[in-house]
Amino acid sequence: xxxxxxxxxxxxxxxxxxxxxxxxxxxxxxxxxxxxxxxxxxxxxxxxxxxxxxxxxxxxxxxxxxxxxxxxxxxxxxxxxxxxxxxxxxxxxxxxxxxxxxxxxxxxxxxxxxxxxxxxxxxxxxxxxxxxxxxxxxxxxxxxxxxxxxxxxxxxxxxxxxxxxxxx
Length: 168
What we know:
Layout: H1 4-23, H2 26-42, H3 53-75, H4 94-108, H5 111-122, H6 127-134, H7 138-156
């Protein structure tokens, strides 16, 4: 029998990937994953094994991220534009530029669309599992994915990218 701690440990790479895609900041992502793991381990007795641990962990991480965003908005940090360093020059490779443009476009999506898109496309979760993590009906998830993809097509000026399409 597999111990729940072993299952949690096996999910760490996926949690880190999702957190980095959500936050676009490696340090914040690592903090988010650490908070998620601390909460999951502290509350592992609350986990009811009706299914895999992974969706439970993604739900915890998603909720922690949402709470952090709400707290950030309340603090309303002001940035001195003179203190912001000049952006570096991106590599000239077209593929790198397109990927960077797509990454920036994903960051501009509304949170609900970004969460849905990342769970389905980055993590490869089935629609039913992603909808359960986000606590929304599957049809709502599909609508959010459709709006996210349409927005990305508009922002990047590119037809649907093969890596953003999912077949379920």
